[in-house]
Fold this sequence. Notes:
The chain is an all-beta fold. The protein has a domain at about 1-55. It has no helices and 14 strands. The chain has strands at about 1-10, 15, 25-40, 40-55, 60-70, 70-85, 85-100, 100-110, 115-120, 125, 130-135, 140, 145-150, 155. Strands 1, 2, 3, 4, 5, 6, 7, 8, 9, 10, 11, 12, 13 and 14 form a 14-stranded antiparallel β-sheet that branches. A hairpin with a 4-residue loop joins strand 12 and strand 13 (about 145-150). The protein is globular, with a radius of gyration of 18 Å. Mean pLDDT is about 85; it is low at about 1-15.
Amino acid sequence: MAMSLFLFIQEPYDIEYIKQDASTANLYMRNIQDIEINHNKITRITTAKESMKYKDKDMLKSVHVRSSEKGFIYDVKSDIAEHQNEIITLKENVVIKRSDDTTFKSNQISYDKPNNRFFCKLDFNITNPTYIASGSGFTYDLDKKSIIAHNIQVDYEMEK
Length: 160
């Protein structure tokens, strides 16, 4: 069971309620920190400079997520994160670093929650100690553990 704590950094809490309109934010918050705790340990810390809740989506600006999952520590940064229709999209200056020295960079990546897959429609670059991969888009199905990449180029270092 996960327990999320919303800790608002500013005093007093900086929340502004705005009229219900799809084009304007209904709720606006600044300097957010969300801590997720599972089984008596912190598994994810999310911070953002701004959060806006619209009628049909949520948006965060200047996002930083640090999480522990499946034996790895992930450090995720992007200028914008949107959650709409069960799809989470990171936009602009997306950098995902994993504790095994693997780094993913692009200007956009999305996670489709119902289908448990990541997809990217823009140029991307992945580096780690043994290879450098780049391409112009991909779909990674987490259930099937399969990836379909477009215009991929991989530079791989062979063992000596």
